[in-house]
Amino acid sequence: MGRLKPGPEAALFEHYNARLRPPLVVTELPEARGSAAEVRRREGAALLAALPEGALLVAMDLGGQAPTSEALAALAERWEATARPLAFAIGGAEGLDPTVLARADHKLSLGPLTWPHFLVRGLLAEQWYRVQAIRANHPYHRAWRPG
Ligand SMILES: C[S@@+](CC[C@H](N)C(=O)[O-])C[C@H]1O[C@@H](n2cnc3c(N)ncnc32)[C@H](O)[C@@H]1O
């Protein structure tokens, strides 16, 4: 949700998206006005209407599953195998509407911290690049963890 103006968040997203093959295609939808519930409902309706037909919808949500990067790479492989167009939904300041969460095929959390939605765009692009690196055995991803 929202139109991202030029600035550090846009640069962060572009930095990682330029490395992605294929790059992510962003559809920006205007943020709605009204009460928090109205905003969520209006933005949710716009978001669902903008989905490509048959999309496999991954809702970015704090209440979702927070996989490791390796587990996300495995999920990506499963999603790709469906041959459905993949769509990530990032909510606005009020979060995603329950109708979007109900439609989602997967709810993905980046952890329990709340991030600004424009930062989530860049974080997701980095993580998707990491997923591609894991799947390609590229040394960008260092899997070592202290034992
Ligand atoms: C400022 S947050 C919305 C906060 C709202 N109170 C909620 O809980 O959804 C804006 C959007 O960024 C995304 N987001 C923020 N933090 C996230 C996290 N830790 N994991 C996944 N998505 C996150 C979600 O799509 C969220 O709708």
Automatic annotation (TrEMBL):
Localization annotation: Cytoplasm
Residues at which S-adenosyl-L-methionine binds: 91, 110-115
One cellular component term from this protein's GO annotations in UniProt: cytoplasm
E.C. number: 2.1.1.177
Keywords, ordered alphabetically: Cytoplasm, Methyltransferase, rRNA processing, S-adenosyl-L-methionine, Transferase
Superkingdom: Bacteria
Catalytic activity: pseudouridine(1915) in 23S rRNA + S-adenosyl-L-methionine = N(3)-methylpseudouridine(1915) in 23S rRNA + S-adenosyl-L-homocysteine + H(+)
GO MF, one annotated term: rRNA (pseudouridine-N3-)-methyltransferase activity
Pfam families, per database record: SPOUT_MTase
Enzyme class: transferase
S-adenosyl-L-methionine among keywords: yes
Record-linked InterPro entries: Alpha/beta_knot_MTases, RlmH-like, tRNA_m1G_MTases_N
Keyword set includes Nucleotide-binding: no
Family: Belongs to the RNA methyltransferase RlmH family.
Function summary: Specifically methylates the pseudouridine at position 1915 (m3Psi1915) in 23S rRNA.
Subunit architecture: Homodimer.
Name used for this protein in its record: Ribosomal RNA large subunit methyltransferase H
Provenance organism: Dankookia rubra
Gene label: rlmH
